[in-house]
Design brief:
The chain is mainly β. The protein is built from no helices and twelve strands.
Length: 168
């Protein structure tokens, strides 16, 4: 091992790094999510499915280095246990968004993007799911409204969630 570090560039070439890289300044905006949150909410009933109660926890913590935020979900949806691990980052200045990749205990995975407005309203968007997350000014509570689409253009309310911070 030579002790030299390399990083792959967008053009496929490797760049030799003389000192450890530092995360983009935009990653600091994710700090508001860091901590353990009590999660609760419910899905919206449809003609074919009843509403499902959701309770559990969400935890956000930085991976060493500060480039990626790890998001763990551990909830019950009625009697079903749902576990998810998600990596958020890095920030992409060309899209002004953070990449999101999630994997769950049922073998599903999703790729989404997160963006934030100047009013600190977060939007998570993917091909078939999207959410609006609003964090209270005191940073102790959050609310999320999730939507789903079968075709990417006709969206329907899917679930509403609230989060209360239980530890930083």
């Amino acid at each position: 091992m030579t002790g030299r570090r390399t990083r792959m560039m967008d053009d496929g070439n490797a760049e030799v790094l003389s000192r450890p890289p530092t995360p983009r300044q935009e990653n600091k905006r994710l700090d508001v999510l860091v901590g353990r949150w009590r999660s609760q909410g419910q899905t919206v009933a449809t003609r074919s499915e009843p509403s499902i109660r959701i309770v559990g926890s969400d935890t956000y913590e930085w991976l060493a280095g500060g480039f990626f935020l790890i998001h763990r979900v551990d909830v019950r949806m009625n009697d079903d246990k749902v576990e998810v691990i998600e990596m958020i980052g890095p920030y992409d200045p060309s899209t002004q968004a953070y990449a999101m990749r999630s994997f769950d205990n049922q073998g599903d995975f999703a790729v989404m993007q997160a963006s934030v407005t100047d009013d600190d309203v977060w939007t998570f968007s993917g091909d078939t799911e999207r959410a609006t997350l609003v964090i209270a000014k005191d940073g102790d509570t959050m609310t999320a409204t999730w939507e789903r689409s079968d075709n990417g253009s006709d969206w329907r309310h899917w679930m509403s969630m609230t989060f209360t911070k239980v530890s930083p």
